[in-house]
What does this fold into?
Amino acid sequence: MECIISISQTFLLDVKRLRKKYKSIISDLDKFKEEISANPFIGSDLGKGLRKIRMGIASKGKGKRGGARIITYNVIKIENTIHIILLTMYDKSEQENISDSELLYLMEVNHLK
It folds into this structure.
């Protein structure tokens, strides 16, 4: 299955903020993109095409469990192509979970509703 990965503006802002704190975040994201391309349906299904996926942060040294969370929106297209939009990323130590209202807001600002 071919996998197309897009990055939203909200995700870029999150990366910029986390990059100041964790120097390895860019290389961690490269590994994450390879992982999600190989298996687009990893992580927890949140409904409405949204998924929550764990990502380790090497410079944090806590593995996936204590690393970051990435919220994606998956759109399955015809002919074995899936389009994945990276919506947001947050540090597990800063935010335990993401609320339904935050998810709806992300979908709205990224014109996915």
Q: What stands out?
A: The radius of gyration is 13 Å. The chain has a mean pLDDT of 91.
